[in-house]
Amino acid sequence: MFDTALTANDLILLARGAGMTLVVTAISVFFGTILGIVFGVLRYQVGPWWAAPMTFVLDIFRSIPLLIQLVLANAFVTTVLGWRVSGFSVACGVLSLYTAAYCSEIVRGGIEAVPQTLRRAARSLGMTWGQDMRHIALPLATRVALPSWIGLALGVMKDSALVYIVQVVELLKSTQILITRLQEPLFLLMICGLFYFVISFPIARLGGYLEKRWSHD
Amino acid sequence: MIEIENVRKSFGPLEVLKGINLTVAKGEVLTVIGGSASGKSTLLTCINGLEPIDSGRILVDGVEVHAKSTDLNRLRQKIGIVFQQWNAFPHLTVLENVMLAQLKVQKRSRAEAEAEAVRQLNHVGLAEKLSVYPSRLSGGQQQRMAIARALAMSPDYMLFDEVTSALDPQLVGEVLDTLRMLASEGMTMICVTHEMKFAREVSDRVAFFHKGVMAEIAPPEQLFGAPRDPELQTFLAATH
């Protein structure tokens, strides 16, 4: 097992792939979360009936396999619209919307969990809707939503492996390249898994850290 | 002055306020008593515009609360309200709870807001708890904090909506003492309460609500001593 043809250069290739996975994930989770908050607040605010069209569109992103979304989006943007866009941009765009669709659900649930009486108390002190959202509702919703959001971020990181389909060489694709060349699938997949663990673990720990910091009991 | 003129309000088919007329003068302490679902709590939330009304009008210092042109967020700074549920903001310390609206709504400086918060918390006996989170406070302490939070906005009127009803019996006293102190300082107050002894002691006038109607209003000695309304007589007999 330790008799391997893997070289330092190959490890650098894997590290680059891991870096790409991390960058795609970070961008998608960042923009997806911002969009998710906007959509989530909107959906909460306008009520289920008015939110129905938005919910429908977001449900499309949640229910069609990511692989299909990536291929279709890539074809649409490059062929139909004729834009000269890199696979990287398409990957980030699709993953951001995919993240936003899930995140809006998490945000809506979080806001719903904030007791109405607290928001009333905030408004009774003369706070505006926006001040209530910014200082009371969203901070409290964040505490409720955090575990689900961490789960989402970790999920997006693993789902980002699918962006190879639009020619983005991330961690899993790099591993496959090496497997084809070295013919050591099990060993290489082990290394690949280790890389995934190393970049996921801090995110998972971040959740525990914040939860601890936010609990005042 | 708070002027309530022929106010009606329904929740669906249930009419909870059936034409209320009431004037509360500056410096007056009015307590409102009555059975559950008598409309007394609803009246308070209508006064600061948290609830819309169906007809009639409410004027606070001449400003019509439910007029479209009224800036409610501004008006509410004048009218403090404390609820049955104490509603501490759980992610903020006691001091931050009392500072937040001062900073964001009144745009006071941090130093100013902190000084005022400390003063008010001191006033309600929570000087030792400034940096504590609300989860570490008892119900009575949280309720006193809510009172300090409302007072920090320097309101002209204070509305108290059954502020002791959700408290353990042994904690009721400390909150009532705070209200007594405010009353003695000349704060204009409307207190919805079930504490008859308290109502008798602090009120200038006591109003009895029954099924959405203000059935009787009188100074406490008269209302408790010689009640005229038959429903009030039944109510008082049941609560003694």
Q: Which terms summarize this structure?
A:
heterodimer; A: 217 residues; mainly alpha; MetI-like fold; 7 helices; 83% helix; flat; B: 240 residues; alpha/beta; Rossmann fold; six-stranded mixed sheet; four-stranded antiparallel sheet; 10 strands
Short description:
Chain A has helices spanning 8-63, 66-80, 87-113, 116-124, 129-159, 171-182, 185-214.
If strands are numbered along the chain, what order do they take across the biggest sheet of chain B? 6-7-8-3-9-10
Find the CATH topology of chain A: MetI-like fold
Query: In sequence order, what are the helices and strands of chain A, one letter per element?
Result: HHHHHHH
- Domain module tally of chain B: 1
SSE pattern of chain B, N- to C-terminal: EEEHEEHEHHHEHEHEEHH
Which structural class do the helices and strands of chain B define?
Answer: alpha/beta
At the first level of CATH, the class of chain A is: Mainly Alpha
Distance between the termini of chain A: 50 Å
| Amount of helix of chain B | 25-40%
Structural features, described:
The complex is a heterodimer of chains A (217) and B (240). Chain A starts with 7 loop residues before the first helix and ends with a helix. Chain A contains seven helices and no strands. Chain A has a single domain (8-114, 146-211), classed as Orthogonal Bundle (MetI-like fold). Chain A is mostly helical and 217 residues long. By secondary structure, chain B is α/β, with parallel strands linked by helices. Chain B has a single domain, classed as 3-Layer(aba) Sandwich (Rossmann fold). Chain B has helices at 40-47, 72-75, 94-104, 110-123, 139-151, 169-184, 196-202, 220-225, 230-239, and strands at residues 2-11, 14-24, 29-34, 55-60, 63-64, 79-82, 157-161, 188-192, 205-210, 213-218. A six-stranded mixed beta sheet of chain B has the order 6-7-8-3-9-10, sandwiched between helices. Chain B has a four-stranded antiparallel beta sheet with strand order 2-1-4-5, with helices on one face. In chain B, α3 (94-104) crosses α4 (110-123) and α5 (139-151) runs parallel beside α6 (169-184). In chain B, 46% of the residues are buried. The mean pLDDT of chain B is 92. The A-B interface holds A 115, 117-118, 120-128, 131, 135-136, 139-140, 143, 214, 216-217 and B 48, 50, 73-74, 76-77, 80-81, 83, 85, 87, 89-91, 100-101, 104-106, 133-136, 146, 149-150, 153.
